[in-house]
Specification:
Number of domains of chain A: 1
Oligomer: heterodimer
Mean pLDDT of chain B: 92
Structural class of chain B: alpha+beta
Distance between the termini of chain B: 26 Å
Order of helices and strands of chain B: EEEEEHEHEEEE
Number of strands of chain A: 8
Largest sheet of chain B: 5 strands, mixed
CATH architecture of chain A: 3-Layer(aba) Sandwich
Strand order of the largest sheet of chain B: 1-3-8-9-10
Shape of chain A: globular
Shape of chain B: globular
Strand content of chain B: 25-35%
CATH topology of chain A: Chemotaxis protein chec
């Protein structure tokens, strides 16, 4: 398969990408449930192909402060994966994982480490399911965390998508159990990797 | 009524008083503010990538420093600004994640800043101040009345550059 434009990929293979997103998020939900030691429900993920100028509408505006865990991936698929969520979600997860309430504006080393680990587990489960489905190897890096304005965080994958088009693929998943929260997965395979994912699935 | 005109990602606009112009959440992107101090005309562009010639999908010229900045200058001139009166201020170009340079887009923030400086030098527009780099997102507002470029970061004081 030749290299494709993101707009073309988005329209032609939208259902395929949606299904990959579905399976990935499903796996991530199982991982999250194991981590929390309780049942976690998930809604059907929403796959959105968004124009850059629409990105501000996600997560309640460009200046909304959010948390994002980011990993670089290498192997048969090269690129990056990010999981972004609201600070309310982060605080609720911290309480659940560490057992103490988060206070103040800055996060302690312990809290940062817990958020990174959670992001690591969720994105790892997501990548695992893609790897199993496509039979392609994916090696994720260690996770990194940024807590900042949604616009500035989204500019990172946007710049990566910007190389191949003017749109960005976001997968929104809502999780619920004792706490409800929704997060965004943003997988950015490079040009050749998109073709390899679709090719391995017989397209 | 004075309005604060919003510039999106990979977008640009030109204003004059009493309006001001803003862009929210610059990460690795750079917000290039250009101001004609005599005619009080202000332009702002939010670029994402340094170089349009490296990229196949380059139809949106506002996405790149090398094509977007000359277009902004042209728009400002069409609105009555003069090149010889123009000065520039830069903000953004952060590295939001510490190991981001492991990826193919090696230090994209730094490269965006460098390409902006190079393009402005070619156009003969001096850069009078900058707030670039680091690992924080920035929201900027340019006032065409006095050329003040306000930079907001999360958890820090507002800076005027």
């Amino acid at each position: 398969m030749e290299n494709l434009d993101i707009n073309e990929i988005g329209t032609k293979y939208f259902d395929v990408l949606k299904e990959i997103g579905n399976i990935g998020a499903g796996n991530a939900t199982t991982a999250l449930a194991q981590l929390m030691g309780s049942r976690v429900d998930m809604t059907v993920p929403q796959v959105k192909l968004m124009e850059f100028h629409e990105l501000g509408t996600t997560m309640g505006g460009e200046d909304q402060v959010v948390a994002a865990v980011y990993l670089v991936v290498e192997g048969d698929i090269n690129g990056s994966i990010m999981f972004m969520m609201s600070l309310e979600a982060v605080n609720a997860l911290i309480k659940r994982l560490i057992g103490t309430e988060h206070v103040g504006e800055t996060y302690s080393d312990m809290e940062v480490s817990a958020i990174k680990e959670m992001g690591n587990i969720i994105t790892g489960a997501y990548l695992n399911s893609i790897s199993t489905l496509t039979n392609l190897t994916i090696y994720p890096s260690v996770p990194d965390l940024a807590i900042d304005m949604a616009g500035s965080i989204l500019s990172v994958p946007a710049a990566e998508f910007g190389v191949i088009g003017d749109k960005m693929l976001l997968i929104q998943t809502s999780f619920s159990n004792e706490i409800d929260f929704s997060g965004y997965f943003i997988l950015v395979p490079d040009e050749g990797s998109y073709a390899r994912i679709l090719g391995s699935l017989g397209f | 009524m004075a309005e604060n005109i919003k510039v999106g990602i990979a977008d640009m606009n030109v204003v004059s008083p009493p309006d001001s112009i803003t862009t929210i959440g610059l990460g690795s992107c750079v917000g290039i503010a250009i101001w004609d101090r005599m005619n009080k005309i202000a332009g702002l562009i939010h670029i994402m990538l340094p170089d349009s010639t490296q990229v196949k999908s380059n139809s949106n010229i506002a996405k790149f420093a090398d094509t977007g900045i000359p277009e902004l200058v042209r728009k400002m001139e069409a609105a009555g600004a003069r090149r010889s009166n123009m000065i520039a201020k830069l903000a953004g170009g952060a590295q939001m994640f510490s190991f981001q340079n492991k990826s193919e887009l090696l230090g994209i923030g730094d490269r965006n800043v460098a390409a902006s400086q190079e393009t402005l030098a070619k156009l003969g527009i001096p850069i009078v101040s900058m707030d670039v780099g680091s690992n924080c997102g920035r929201t900027v507002t340019l006032n065409p009345e006095n050329g003040e470029y306000e930079v907001k970061t999360v958890g820090k004081d507002i800076k005027i550059i």
